[in-house]
Design a protein that fits this description.
Largest sheet of chain A: 5 strands, mixed
Strand content of chain B: under 5%
Structural class of chain A: alpha/beta
Oligomer: heterodimer
Helix content of chain A: 40-55%
CATH class of chain B: Mainly Alpha
Radius of gyration of chain B: 25 Å
Largest sheet of chain B: none
CATH topology of the largest domain in chain A: D-Maltodextrin-Binding Protein, domain 2
Strand order of the largest sheet of chain A: 2-1-3-13-6
Order of helices and strands of chain B: HHHHHHHHHHHHHHHH
Chain lengths: 430, 334
């Protein structure tokens, strides 16, 4: 342990030297700074700009983080800018290509590979050991890699669970199900009158890819150098047939996705028995409709049999440092702070999202939403690891595929069309 | 687009230049001071320079850049590293070999043809109807047309998207009330119905301009011609075929060619309706395809090549149109 600290201090000191190039106050700095084990990079009136996504961290967490960082780095300022999800891909692309990029950028875990492959991100492979990378959730760290190099540092994870209305379950005298068959059964019983058994928009492809995984297939697999998509096979048809059956037990649109779900749930006022979302969405809904407080319970997406929960696509975010950042050492210090056990635990407790390390899972298991999420995370999986995957999501043919199946088109025929589009995108050379 | 349409209206050959001559003449009679030769010759250029520079920067530069892009290997990596190699016609070869491109091109032509025919037919009927209306009704209809024209594209598109929503759209509600089985019908689940809604939207947006222009043309035709035709026993169809259409042929050609441009390059309507949740790969036209390749797939070079091809196709079609128009004008003069 001591030796690792020494090495870390040495590395940090060397970095400090690099950062001090071009500034003439390097002497003062040496005096100011105690020989702390974490030896932070020099502040020198620099402002570190961090882009976090809306909803990733609460305001008081950001304020505390800022205070801590600025105390550790006298003279430096931390400027956290909250970004909207809508249009973020183009905004990050523009930032990476600019001369004036932010220093730390959060991006969805499935998006990192394209940025890494573009050459716009700093290779952080040498930091993985120091950051405790062996304990990272693989659903976050694997998509952050391109050709074995790490560009994305796991930030937090979340996967989808079933959120249910406890009152409606009690009234119908049903229990959270353990298998798909039970799930269909209780949902049918809950779907009566103006009450919806489940609110499931037709285009929740995150949920669909979990069903597909349970059937033993991935959206796309690489054989040799070429990608092959799997939406025309028997597993895909079985997964979409189950989706269709479940979707019909509610009134959600077959041609919509889950983006407006929180608004629908908040406006509905307790007539929807179940919906599929990350547990944090319950908070969002309660915020806009306080009458729903304490009404929500959580259970993992049921598996095919009771032995294990359904597979869950790991969602979440990674942090990355643009090559064009002017304060890369300070940027790394921000990431290091956020990655520390203390700040990961704080974040997980505040947001009910999974911390980035498996060793920290106790931070959320006390929370019912977190516990349900952990069950699903045991069978967690990631999207196909290709720099082009982000382009598939950008123009997602799985959504159109699902709507077609929901509205009666043959699953194999619809799957062939979606396959062609996915394969073309994944197999495009950059 | 609306600006260029408006300019075109002013430049319509049937409209006589009314107030230019008098005001110009008045000014010429009383020159305040005679400028010296060099100032006189330079001033006009100085005056138009800002406009020329603006156009050069906002129009020529992007077009030139786009064409350059289409001859480079320019993707995400090159965007970041800011160095790209010229690859000659490689991008064009790749696109022209791609069956997807030809499918999209075919669809763009069909889509444009259906829309332009619908717009021209409906607008002609509307313009003829406007001629027959009384003053109050005519003003009401004109106000309605202008209001439809003034609705921003995205606003109108959003409203159409809501009208045709599957779960709580007013169109499905009305159809169900009328006894049709349209409960929860997903208009944006399939290519055919999606294109139908997009066509309705684009036709609705195009009609005001076409109708108003044709109506303006109709008002210039002397009523004597119609009276004598009626005296000779010509019915309304015959009058339209033998009098109205031949006289207004240049205006019809002009409106039609402007509509071809407008519809061929329409992007926002298709993208906003089908881009996020619709069957976009089955309804995309060339501009949408170029955008997808550029912004979603980050193949900026392919997007450049596709949009350059789109511009070339449009230019060729319009050259054909204008040649036809000028030929007819020359024949009319003889």
């Amino acid at each position: 342990m001591k030796r690792r600290l020494l090495v870390a201090a040495g590395v940090a000191a060397a970095l400090t030297g690099v950062a001090a190039c071009g500034s003439d106050s390097s002497d003062d700095k040496k005096d100011n700074k105690p020989a702390a084990s974490n030896a932070p990079a020099a502040g020198n009136g620099k402002t570190v700009r961090v882009w976090l996504m809306k909803g990733s961290a609460p305001d008081d967490y950001i304020a505390a983080l800022k205070a801590k960082f600025e105390a550790d780095h006298p003279g430096a300022k931390l400027d956290v800018q909250i970004q909207q999800w809508n249009g973020i891909g183009q905004k990050i692309t523009g930032a990476l290509a600019s001369n004036d990029a932010p220093d730390v950028v959060e991006a969805g875990n499935t998006q990192i590979a394209q940025y890494g492959a573009s050459g716009g991100l700093k290779d952080l492979s040498s930091k993985v050991t120091e950051l405790g990378g062996k304990d990272w959730l693989t659903g976050l760290s694997d998509p952050g890699k391109v050709d074995g190099k790490t560009y994305g540092i796991p930030f937090y994870a979340a996967n989808r669970v079933v959120i249910y209305n406890k009152d409606l379950f009690a009234k119908a005298n049903v229990q959270p199900p353990k298998t798909r068959a039970e799930w269909l059964d209780i949902t049918k019983r809950l779907n009566t009158g103006d009450q919806q058994g489940i609110y499931l928009p037709g285009q929740n492809w995150y949920f669909y890819s979990g069903l597909l995984k349970d059937e033993g297939a991935d959206i796309a697999t690489k054989s040799g150098s070429a990608w092959k998509a799997n939406l025309d096979g028997a597993p895909a048809a079985a997964a979409s047939a189950f989706y269709k059956e479940l979707q019909a037990l509610g009134k959600a649109a077959k041609d919509g996705d889950e983006k407006t779900q929180p608004e629908v749930l908040a406006a509905d006022g307790g007539k929807i028995a179940q919906f599929i979302a990350v547990p944090g969405e319950a908070e969002t809904i309660i915020k806009s409709n306080p009458a729903l407080k304490d009404k929500f319970g959580f259970f993992p997406i049921p598996g095919k049999d009771a032995s294990k929960a359904g597979a869950a696509l790991t969602g979440g975010s990674d942090l990355m440092v643009p090559e064009a950042s002017k304060n890369q050492d300070l940027a790394y210090d921000v990431i290091k702070l956020i990655n520390s056990d203390e700040w990961q635990t704080k974040l997980a407790q505040a947001t009910k999202q999974l911390p980035n390390k498996t060793t920290l899972s106790s931070a959320v298991t006390a929370d019912p939403g977190g516990a349900a999420m952990m069950e699903g995370a045991k069978n967690g999986f990631a999207t196909p690891n290709s720099p082009n995957w982000a382009s598939v999501e950008d123009n997602n043919p799985i959504k159109a595929y699902l709507t077609k199946v929901m509205t009666g088109t043959d699953a194999v025929a619809a799957g062939k069309e979606a396959n062609a589009s996915i394969e073309k995108t994944l197999n495009t050379k950059n | 687009m609306s600006a260029s349409k408006a300019d075109a209206v002013v430049a319509t050959p049937t409209q006589p230049p009314r107030n230019q001559a008098p005001s110009g003449a008045r000014r010429a009679t009383k020159p305040p001071r005679k400028p010296s030769g060099i100032v006189k010759s330079v001033t006009p250029y100085l005056l138009v320079a800002p406009a020329i520079l603006g156009i050069a920067f906002l129009l020529f530069y992007p077009v030139v850049r786009n064409v350059m892009l289409s001859f480079q290997h320019y993707r995400f990596k090159q965007l970041i590293s800011r160095s790209a190699d010229y690859v000659g016609w490689e991008n064009y070869q790749e696109i022209l070999k791609d069956s997807e491109f030809w499918e999209v091109t075919r669809r763009t032509f069909y889509f444009t043809a259906v829309n332009v025919v619908a717009v021209m037919l409906i607008s002609t009927v509307c313009a003829l109807m406007l001629m027959k209306l009384g003053k109050t009704m005519r003003i009401l209809v004109l106000v309605g047309l202008v209001a439809a024209w003034a609705t921003p594209v995205i606003a109108a598109t959003t409203i159409f998207k809501w009208l045709f929503r599957s779960d709580n759209g007013v169109v499905n509600w009305a159809l169900v009330k009328l006894g049709f089985d349209y409960e929860g019908y997903t208009w944006f689940g399939h290519a055919g119905s999606t294109l139908t809604v997009v066509t309705l939207l684009i036709v609705w947006q195009s009609i005001p301009f076409a109708t108003l222009t044709l109506y303006a043309g109709l008002t210039t035709v002397s009523t004597d011609v119609y009276e004598s035709a009626r005296l000779d026993g010509a019915g309304p169809v015959r009058i339209f075929r033998s009098i109205t259409f031949p006289i207004l042929r240049p205006i019809f050609a002009l409106v039609a060619s402007l509509e071809v441009i407008w519809i061929f390059k329409s992007f926002a309507q298709i993208w906003a309706i089908a881009g996020e949740n619709g069957p976009i790969n089955e309804v995309r036209t060339l501009p949408v395809y170029a955008y997808q390749q550029g912004m979603s797939a980050k193949l900026f070079d392919m997007a450049g090549a596709i949009s350059t091809i789109t511009v070339v196709i449009l230019a060729v079609m319009l050259v054909f149109y204008f040649r036809q128009m000028f030929k007819q004008e020359r024949e009319a003069d003889k």
